[in-house]
Write a structure and sequence with these properties.
2 helices, mainly alpha, 2 strands, two-stranded antiparallel ribbon
Length: 64
């Protein structure tokens, strides 16, 4: 992925996150914002997956 493509996706994500926050305001559960953000990102043509597992290494140990 080129830097220009990366920057375009970054702009789309930030724009959608701001739109969700403006529409819903503060104070809701994270899962509500997540489902709304995913909807907007998909509307923008992005492929989005929810709650994917990411391995974390902490103090020399891999955690799930």
């Amino acid at each position: 992925m080129s830097l220009a493509e990366y920057n375009k996706i970054t702009e789309q994500v930030i724009k959608c996150a701001i739109e969700v926050h403006k529409e819903l305001g503060p104070g809701l559960m994270e899962s509500v914002y997540e489902v709304c953000l995913i909807k907007l990102l998909r509307d923008e043509g992005l492929r989005v997956k929810r709650q994917v597992s990411v391995p974390v290494h902490f103090k020399g140990e891999r955690l799930d």
